[in-house]
Specification:
Blueprint lengths: L1 H10 L11 H82 L4 H17 L1
Helix pairs in contact: 2-3
Length: 126
């Protein structure tokens, strides 16, 4: 601020420092001052507009990511239910195969093959 006052004082020649300023001159000086302020406000306003646009884009991206997360959560929920159901089915099948194996005295190749497939399913379902 002090620098601006010094600059203004330098612009006025010393012999004019004591002269009276007319209303028109004062109005022009004030007008020039406001013109500079208006330009600065326009720059600030432009920056805020750009920031608003950036925030809008970010908000859209966040909404998109949120939708994707919900979709993944839904899939995992459904998939988790499926896995639990599969584990129960595999457990039941394994129990029934053991029962049939006892009845058959372990002579059936088909029971053996099914037991091997059940073991693979147990590994895959964790």
């Amino acid at each position: 601020m002090k620098n601006k006052i010094k600059k203004l004082n330098r612009k006025i020649p010393r012999k004019e420092a004591g002269r009276k300023v007319t209303i028109n001159e004062l109005a022009l000086m004030i007008g020039k001052g406001f013109a500079g302020v208006d330009a600065k406000f326009a720059q600030v306003n432009e920056r805020f507009t750009q920031m608003d646009e950036r925030f809008d884009r970010m908000e859209m991206k966040l909404d998109s990511l949120e939708r994707r997360i919900f979709a993944i959560e839904d899939i995992l929920t459904e998939h988790g239910k499926d896995i639990r159901e599969i584990k129960e089915d595999v457990k039941e099948i394994k129990t029934e195969l053991r029962t049939l194996k006892k009845v058959d005295n372990g002579n059936s190749d088909k029971i053996f093959g099914l037991e091997q497939r059940v073991k693979v399913l147990e590994v895959k379902t964790g």
